[in-house]
Design goal:
Blueprint lengths: L21 E8 L7 E6 L10 E6 L4 E11 L2 H8 L8 E2 L8 H13 L4 H8 L2 H4 L4 E9 L22 H12 L9 E2 H8 L3 H9 L3 E9 L20 H15 L4 E7 L5 H14 L3 E5 L2 H4 L2 H9 L3 E4 L5 H12 L5 E4 L11 E6 L17 H12 L2 E6 L4 H9 L3 E6 L10 E6 L17 H12 L3 E5 L6 E5 L17 E4 L15 E7 L6 E5 L10 E5 L1 H11 L5 E4 L9 H9 L5 E4 L12 E6 L13 H13 L10 E6 L5 H7 L3 H14 L7 E9 L2 H21 L5 E6 L5 E2 L2 E10 L2 H12 L9 E6 L6
Parallel strand pairs: 9-14, 9-15, 10-12, 10-13, 11-12, 13-14, 16-26, 17-24, 17-25, 23-24, 25-26
Antiparallel strand pairs: 1-2, 1-4, 3-4, 3-5, 6-7, 6-8, 18-22, 19-20, 20-21, 27-30, 27-31, 28-30, 29-30
Helix pairs in contact: 2-3, 2-13, 5-6, 8-9, 18-19
The chain binds adenosine-5'-diphosphate and zinc ion (ZN) (2 copies).
């Protein structure tokens, strides 16, 4: 870990050659260095503001690097201190205007401090790469009439004769330019459009330019395709809010109008009309002259919710991972210009440059995907609350299954208010939940373990198909099989880089391709590591003892195959990140909405945000996938997943049924979910968390170290242990420490891993600990070390 930020006061970059006068600017570079650097801004460049980028020479080789201006030094004492060093000079100012305003700068500093991340890396995560690269900005040739050289509608050549009008084409060109009022660079006309309109080649235009009657110029324009395709939202009717919705909305609106910070937790069962409340709250926010940001889990974004927002808001900007660089840049620029009243996006949209922010909505606030798993390891929800705080804005956290952290905040923090929508809209009943115990579901004659569909579920599927209704099946595991092993010697296929078993992905049958590409002794497909993506062929027989290899642990590909066998008439589509690679997710959803698909089968991608009234059956093929992960949130995840997916069923008067297949029918998380008993589940789980000093009662941080060489890792980890213990005892911090210990997956991508798990009753002690550690010199030997504050898992 590197130095404290304040050390940079004395850490200016030395340079013997630079001797320029000007203001001193303090900048953050994206080099991983945990300090700021001072440079002189040569006077002739003009002024800069915090949030603008400059280019500076860095390091011994004076490599030019972009950097964000954090501060322009005005304090005379500090200036004197800086002058003791010969500072290097800024080379170029990169941005005309700041990319981050004062509030976002403040947010960045908070993230840097709270999540223990160098400020430069926070900045670089806040502004999309597409924006920094000017993605999609092209130079376009344009033409305008040259009024400045005295051009008036009467045209004279240089020799005084009326030459221009001699050519019909030239005359036409001039007329078109006059009609479109292309009189200067701003109003200039696109060159190719002009030539097309005049139906002529370039040469008459060039002659006009030579005679200085027109001017040719280049103009920067941003080209990007529109971001939302049409045709997914079937909604046009306006609804009348029910009593619970109205009550929730009234509260939120009164808070928005007070212009002060507060958090509403909107706990509403699936289909209780939460989104409708968000939309109306945003309408009120806009009416009050302010703007809003809406965060959704990534996958819900590519689906119907975006369409709904677009139907309701004219000035909407959208930011999600499927956008191309130019699209993202165009959306960001429109937000930055204040053209968007509402920004809807995934996690990083919380950094959208929205001014006059009045409301932030986090839908499905319990979702683990709001936590970023690379530096900076921030939680989108928690950053949203902080941003609302900075902006004196209101924040809505919505969910059918709020996280235990959020529920705990409702009980302990005064600016949190819990609002509930206990019923589905139109008084629709919750779907009927049916448990299928997979241990007893099959008759003795049937093969157990190999089958994914229980007889009960299969029968119900046939009925649904007969009635012309639709079904969604969830199997939260990609691929075909995730455990390939030899039954006689127990050899299993594991990744050579990671400490995990490989997942078998069957090769799709491609027409016109021979199957022989895999060789006679190989099974047709690849074993892929889901962590490092290493790929290998799979032998039919065990490399150690030559017995036949077996596959257990079944994935979504296998489900698709079983459906084809058991329900040959059903039109089935698989949706997961494999099958959707390069395919149009929208197109599949549209086909499903139009009834061209009977069964959608797939992974978690199906659990969120889908609203199809004709879906009367949902099957959770295995409720157990998350249950036995060695992680303290696995019960919570299991409960959330079952409720989430179940919510896709019965969204019309046709009603709905949910089958939950499990081998562990008496597990509390499953029992509670089946009874729809959220508060029962929460009460029990909270007790357990409290007893084990776990979040939300205690705070947690993980210090993760990794290195390809285990011995080096161990040496460094032991030193880290000494440091941690040293600070904890010197500062008398109330922190319990475990480690160094191997996490459940002890090696990933050839890196061995060792973790420290730190727990404390309050976050301030952890903050103090990391503040001290950041001031210390780096460990020797150096190994990669990461800090994860409020981790979402301990795997
Ligand atoms: P949630 O976000 O809680 O899942 P939505 O807001 O998406 O619920 O509402 C589900 C469906 O019910 C949507 O089609 C929505 O238009 C409709 N809806 C919402 N509120 C009402 C209401 N008060 N009366 C009738 N329909 C409603
Ligand atoms: Zn073997
Ligand atoms: Zn691997």
């Amino acid at each position: 870990m590197a130095k404290d930020l304040t050390k940079s006061l004395f850490g200016g970059e030395l340079d013997d050659t630079a001797d320029v006068s000007g203001q001193i600017v303090r900048v953050a570079l994206d080099t991983g260095a945990d300090s700021l650097f001072d440079y002189v801004l040569p006077e002739f460049m003009g002024a800069v503001e915090p949030g603008q980028r400059v280019q500076v020479p860095f390091g011994r080789a004076n490599k030019l690097q972009p950097a964000f201006v954090v501060e322009v030094i005005t304090d005379s004492e500090e200036i004197e201190k800086c002058k003791r060093f010969k500072l290097k000079a800024v080379k170029v100012i990169l941005d005309e205007l700041p990319l981050l305003d004062a509030q976002l700068m403040e947010l960045a500093k908070w993230i840097s401090q709270y999540y223990v991340c160098p400020l430069g890396q926070v900045f670089s995560a806040m502004v999309p790469a597409a924006v920094k690269k000017d993605a999609g900005v092209r130079k376009k040739a344009v033409v305008y009439l040259n009024c400045s050289t005295g051009f008036q509608p009467v045209i004279h050549g240089q020799d005084g004769r009326d030459t221009a009008l001699r050519s019909k084409k030239q005359k036409k060109l001039v007329e078109i330019l006059k009609d479109t009022k292309a009189f200067d660079a701003d109003s200039a006309m696109d060159k190719s459009a002009l030539l097309k309109a005049a139906d002529c080649t370039e040469s008459p235009l060039k002659q006009l330019a030579r005679k200085r009657i027109v001017k040719l110029a280049k103009k920067e324009v941003l080209h990007a395709l529109p971001v939302v395709p049409d045709g997914l939202s079937l909604e046009t009717k306006t609804v009348v809010l029910n009593k619970d919705q109205q009550k929730a909305l009234d509260f939120v609106c009164s808070e928005i109008e007070k212009n002060r910070f507060g958090v509403s937790v909107l706990h509403g069962v699936t289909d209780s009309g939460k989104t409708e409340v968000y939309i109306r709250a945003i309408e009120r926010c806009i009416a009050a002259g302010k703007r809003a940001i809406v965060l959704l889990p990534e996958i819900a974004l590519t689906a119907q919710t975006v369409q709904r927002f677009r139907n309701r808001f004219e000035n909407l900007a959208i930011l999600h991972s499927q956008l191309s660089g130019p699209q993202r840049n165009a959306q960001w620029q429109s937000i930055n210009k204040g053209q968007a009243d509402v920004v809807i996006g995934a996690r990083s949209a919380i950094f959208a440059p929205v001014s006059d922010l009045g409301l932030i909505v986090i839908d499905e606030e319990h979702e683990g995907s709001y936590k970023q798993d690379t530096v900076p390891r921030y939680h989108g929800r928690d950053v949203a609350v902080k941003r609302a705080h900075i902006a004196d804005a209101h924040c809505i956290l919505g969910s059918a299954t709020p996280s235990l952290e959020t529920l705990h905040n409702c009980e302990t923090k005064k600016h949190y208010t819990l609002l509930t929508l206990p019923k589905r809209v139109n008084d629709l009943p919750m779907p009927e939940m049916k448990l299928v115990n997979m241990l007893t579901a099959f008759a003795d004659t049937e093969h157990k373990g190999v089958q994914l569909l229980s007889p009960h579920l299969r029968e119900h599927l046939s009925k649904v198909l007969e009635k012309g209704e639709q079904a969604i099946l969830l199997l939260n595991r990609r691929g075909y099989s995730n455990f390939i092993y030899c039954p006689s010697c127990r050899h299993s296929l594991t990744c050579r880089n990671c400490d995990v078993t490989l997942t078998f992905h069957k090769k799709p049958k491609l027409e016109g391709r021979k199957e022989t590409t895999f060789g006679r002794h190989m099974i047709g497909g690849y074993a892929i590591c889901h962590y490092c993506l290493a790929k290998t062929l799979v032998p039919q027989t065990c490399p150690l003892c030559s017995s036949r290899m077996t596959m257990i642990g079944l994935g979504s590909q296998r489900l698709e195959e079983e459906l084809a066998k058991k329900l040959p008439k059903a039109r089935v589509r698989r949706i997961d990140s494999d099958s959707m690679a390069g395919q149009d997710y929208y197109a599949v959803l549209r086909e499903f909405a139009e009834g061209k698909i009977d069964i959608l089968a797939g992974t978690q991608m199906l659990a969120k945000g889908l609203h199809f009234p004709n879906v009367t059956l949902v099957g959770i093929i295995s409720a157990d996938t998350a249950l036995f992960l060695p992680d303290f949130r696995s019960n919570e995840r299991t409960f959330q997943l079952i409720s989430q997916v179940a919510g896709r069923a019965g969204r019309s008067e046709k009603g709905g049924t949910v089958y939950v297949q499990t081998f562990f029918a008496t597990q509390p998380a499953i029992e509670f979910a089946l009874r729809n008993d959220f508060s029962g589940f929460v009460a029990q789980e909270m007790e357990h968390r409290a007893a084990c000093s776990l979040p939300p009662y205690w705070r947690m941080a993980i210090v993760a170290m990794r290195d390809p060489k285990f011995e080096r890792l161990q040496t460094a980890a032991n030193q880290m242990k000494e440091r941690l213990e040293g600070v904890i005892s010197a500062e008398k911090l109330d922190i319990t420490m475990r480690g160094p210990q191997e996490p459940a997956i002890s090696r990933i991508q050839r890196f061995h891993r060792l973790h420290f798990i730190l727990q404390s009753p309050g976050v301030s002690h952890l903050q103090r600990l990391f503040e001290r550690l950041r001031q210390m010199a780096p460990l020797r030997p150096t190994v990669q070390t990461q800090v994860d504050i409020d981790p979402i898992g301990v795997l």
